Structures are given as C-alpha cells and as structure tokens.
C-alpha cells in the first residue's frame, strides 16, 4: 500500500459480517484494512494501537457499544473519523451518533463500492449519511417540542439561516427565501458553524432543535 491509502479498522460483533467487510475493502484501491474488532472496547484499544484514518463501527456490540466507543475515540483519537455501519436506523441511535461526533451513519445494505466511496470521503472530512437516516432525523426534528429560545450569539439573519438549515433547506432554497445570493448564504453558514463550534449542517440542525430555534 502507498502512503496515500486510507487506513481502516472494521468493528462488528458478527464474525461473518466483520470479515466479509474487511475482505471486500481490502481489494478496493487506496484502502488498507489495518485490523478488525468484535466489540467496542477492542475497537478502541486497537484503534489507539494502529491509528486508523477511519473506523467502521457497528452500533450494537457487546462489552462496549459502538456509540460509546465512538465517543471515546473522539476524545482519545480526534484525528480518526468514525463511520457507523449498522442495520438499525432508530432515531435515538442516529441522534446519539451525531452528538458523538461521528463522520456518518450508514446502513449495511449499501453496495460495497458506495461503502468504499464513503470511507474515502469520510477520511477527507466529508460526512456521509444514508438517505433514510436523514429522513428519520428530519422527522425527529419536526416532532420535537418547542422550548423557550435562549440567548444565542448569532445575528437575526444567522438565526434565520440556522432555522432553515434545520428544516433541510439547501443553500439555493435559503437564498431564495431570504432574497440573498448563494454566496451570502455560504458565508452565513460558515459563520454559524464557526461561532457555535459545530462541524457540519447536521450538527447545526441538532443544535437548533435542542435550543428550540425551530
């Protein structure tokens, strides 16, 4: 493998799935599988020993579940991106994974080539989420009760942009709603993420929901 290969660790408690994923990834160009783990604790320990670029992590695993393992890796190995790869698309799991700072939430029915692409993008800092997962997140946001709006260090226009982000609007749609250019919207989004210490639009949506800004 060359120095530009994405180094991946696969964590899944089912041996057949774990080894199958590892075998499929090992033949993908630009991807190197550095190890496999059968539970969350083993995944954390192996990741600390091998420093992979990306960890593919199942949600439900013995000893330590994947979500807690993802939280520990964020604390102890912040340069490593964690991709949740699971059969479960429960809203609770999705929200917990996003709060844990994972780089994506994918379902196991995606094609191998799409999984390899998601790993490469995650390594480059681009979050990857299954479309069904995003729909569940939007549904959860829509159902959330509205709380009292706290003081937020954003301008009125930035709060308006944040609300539209939380409702799933694209930059083009936000620009049309607010009668500004897409470039202006991009600047607002960048400022919002920076001021609130958030990584991406999905975390911004969670932030808006938690603070009753919808």
TrEMBL record:
<dbReference type="InterPro" id="IPR058245">
    <property type="entry name" value="NreC/VraR/RcsB-like_REC"/>
</dbReference>
<keyword id="KW-0238">DNA-binding</keyword>
<keyword id="KW-0597">Phosphoprotein</keyword>
<dbReference type="InterPro" id="IPR016032">
    <property type="entry name" value="Sig_transdc_resp-reg_C-effctor"/>
</dbReference>
<dbReference type="Pfam" id="PF00196">
    <property type="entry name" value="GerE"/>
</dbReference>
<dbReference type="GO" id="GO:0000160">
    <property type="term" value="P:phosphorelay signal transduction system"/>
</dbReference>
<dbReference type="InterPro" id="IPR011006">
    <property type="entry name" value="CheY-like_superfamily"/>
</dbReference>
<dbReference type="InterPro" id="IPR000792">
    <property type="entry name" value="Tscrpt_reg_LuxR_C"/>
</dbReference>
<dbReference type="Pfam" id="PF00072">
    <property type="entry name" value="Response_reg"/>
</dbReference>
<dbReference type="GO" id="GO:0006355">
    <property type="term" value="P:regulation of DNA-templated transcription"/>
</dbReference>
<feature type="modified residue" description="4-aspartylphosphate">
    <location>
        <position position="58"/>
    </location>
</feature>
<dbReference type="InterPro" id="IPR001789">
    <property type="entry name" value="Sig_transdc_resp-reg_receiver"/>
</dbReference>
<feature type="domain" description="HTH luxR-type">
    <location>
        <begin position="147"/>
        <end position="212"/>
    </location>
</feature>
<dbReference type="InterPro" id="IPR039420">
    <property type="entry name" value="WalR-like"/>
</dbReference>
<dbReference type="GO" id="GO:0003677">
    <property type="term" value="F:DNA binding"/>
</dbReference>
<keyword id="KW-0805">Transcription regulation</keyword>
<feature type="domain" description="Response regulatory">
    <location>
        <begin position="7"/>
        <end position="123"/>
    </location>
</feature>
<keyword id="KW-0804">Transcription</keyword>
<protein>
    <submittedName>
        <fullName>LuxR family two component transcriptional regulator</fullName>
    </submittedName>
</protein>
């Amino acid at each position: 493998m060359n120095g530009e290969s994405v180094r991946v660790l696969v964590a899944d408690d089912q041996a057949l799935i774990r080894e199958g994923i590892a075998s499929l990834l090992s033949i993908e160009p630009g991807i190197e599988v550095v190890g496999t783990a059968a539970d969350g604790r083993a995944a954390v320990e192996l990741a600390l020993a091998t420093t992979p670029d990306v960890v593919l992590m199942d949600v439900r695993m013995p000893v330590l579940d994947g979500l807690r393992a993802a939280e520990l890796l964020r604390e102890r190995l912040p340069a490593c991106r964690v991709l949740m790869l699971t059969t479960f698309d429960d809203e609770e799991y999705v929200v917990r994974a996003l709060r844990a700072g994972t780089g994506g939430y994918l379902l196991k029915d995606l094609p191998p080539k799409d999984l390899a692409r998601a790993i490469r993008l995650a390594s480059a800092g681009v979050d990857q989420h299954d479309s069904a997962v995003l729909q569940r997140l939007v549904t959860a946001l829509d159902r959330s009760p509205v709380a009292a709006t706290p003081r937020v260090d954003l301008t009125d226009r930035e709060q308006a942009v944040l609300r539209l982000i939380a409702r799933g609007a694209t930059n083009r749609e936000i620009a049309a709603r607010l009668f500004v250019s897409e470039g202006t919207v991009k600047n607002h989004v960048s400022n919002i993420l920076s001021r609130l210490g958030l990584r991406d639009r999905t975390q911004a949506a969670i932030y808006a929901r938690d603070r009753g800004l919808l």
